[in-house]
Amino acid sequence: MSTMIECQGLSRRYPDSDGEGRGVFAIDLQIPAGSMTVLAGPSGSGKSTLLNLIGGLERADSGCLLVEGQDLNALDERGLALYRRRRVGFVFQEYNLIPSLNARENIELPLRLLGQRDDQRVEAMLERVGLGGRGAAMPNQLSGGERQRLALARAVIHRPALLLADEPTAGLDAANALMLLQLLRELNGELGVSVLLATHDARLIERIERRMRLEDGRLARG
Amino acid sequence: MSSTEGDIPRGLAGLGLWSSLALRFVARHRRRSLAAGLFILIGCSLLVLIHAIAVGVNDAMVINTTALHHGDAFIETSANPQALATRMESDPAVAAALPRRHLTALAVGNEGSTSLALYRVDPTREQTHAAVPRRLVAGKYPQEGDELLLGQVAAEALGIEIGDTLELLLADGSRLSELTLVGLFRTQIEQFDAHTAYMPLSDTSRGEGEIALFFHQRDHANELARLQHEHGAQLRPWHELRPDLLQLIEMNDISVALVMLFVFILVGFGIGNLFVLTTLERFREFGILKAMGVTPGELQLMVFLESLLIGLLATAAGLLLGWAMSELLALRGIDFSAMTSSNRYFVMSGMVHPRTTAEGLWQPGVLALSVSLVAAYIPARIAARRAAAQVLNAV
Fold first, then answer.
1. Tens of pLDDT along B336-367?
2. For chain B, N or C: smaller number of CB within 10 Å?
3. Among all residues of chain A, which has the CA nearest to that of B388?
4. How far apart are CA B71 and CA A191, in angstroms?
5. How far apart are CA B1 and CA A181, in angstroms?
6. ipTM value
7. A100/B119 Cα distance (integer angstroms)
8. Residue B302: how many CA atoms within 13 Å on its side-chain side?
9. Yes or no, beta carbons of A97 and B4 under 8 Å apart
10. What is the pTM of this model?
11. Contact A110 B292 (CB under 8 A)
């Protein structure tokens, strides 16, 4: 199995009020392509920061970060944007759907950004996440569970190599959380997309075999 | 690492993508779009109206001033002015040609004497086109023989009234005796009212020949050149005879241009403020787009296209509204009489009829569009510069 993500000595530090600094420090890890990995840890442990670095939303202060062999530190602003557009899908805790676009338009946006139009694929994806017939609904007309499934559909519609999910089940009830996890598993299997999921939700952590844990910005082994 | 499916839309495809997204965002952010559009629309329509009123004021000044004496163009001729005027009136571009003979005279009345510019005129033509017959304050316009029309100020200086007789001593030493004062006029131009007199023209009238020419169209530069060529006469346009009026019109144009600029600087601040506020409201949306891989340049282009779209639609609507308001006001005219009663440039009437010109449409249009685009630049830059994570983490 080839390597999707490889980090060596990866650090990103934010100054905070007590002068200690928060972020991630000296992260060494390897994640195989096509795998599903959970990044566990308490709030403030650096999970979101690590996801942002891997997703090209932020730049590391030091260390090496390779995704599919590409050194993200070597990319300029436009290069990072195009990397996100082509290779990455994001699912955020706050859904982060575009409020002025309806469900169908939210899903088709990543395709349009790549110069593609595929109505069939969009409709199939809406069906796949249980939103068939709700394509015209605006995000504020959907429930929390529906919004998160819509966000997941948008994140994978363009078949990215890497799906990054940051606390995707926060605010969801158990049924919706498990439904989302099931969808993630299926898409991971069907599309071969590598999934890196950051959470402190024990319901998810215990159901994913490949686990990593962050504590105070450092990777804890075992 | 490379793209496995499709690629980034560029060139026309990119413009199509960002235009369609901009259109969608403009339509979905209806309140924001309407508020910004309304700002531009009101500013633009007001500018069209202001410009049309300014053109109307200029028109009124020209009409009033040319009607007083010289016409749109003036001819001094040694030939028979009646015959030349009749020939010129047969030209389709000419509305009227008023033949006159001009003499300098000294009037001696009961209480004093005064110098006069005496014009022998064709009463029928004068009453149709000239201003003085419409400014009679007593009596009638002279029609025949030795009837005389005098400015009221001159009559007062001479101490004569309607029905009195008068003798004029001409520059060549001859006399015109037993002239009957049949009418008085008052234009409010003191010098004119104190030193001008009119008598009917006859074939035997003496004096310098002249013709006041009136055209059907306001823009008659080509007709001037043609008539000059066809009739061999020296035509002097009104702006040569009245440089003061030309200067006044130019000053009026500059004032209007400055007003337009100031109005749109203010409107620009308003639009800019609105765009900045709405951009701040949309930071989350922009952050999501950037997280999805939209480049800073593309985001800037999209915000710019949104502003362009709002600007274009609002400008078009503003031009239409401004034109409609101007046409509506032009139907009845705006009465400036109370403000122009002693103004020599409004001798006949203080009515102003706003007139929309091509310049009066494209100038406010270009100004409105330019200001809205400049006002959109700062928010577009702000949106493009903020990092996606910074925006998303801040929410």
1. 877 766 666 776 677 889 999 999 999 888 88
2. C
3. A57
4. 87
5. 28
6. 0.92
7. 77
8. 26
9. no
10. 0.76
11. yes
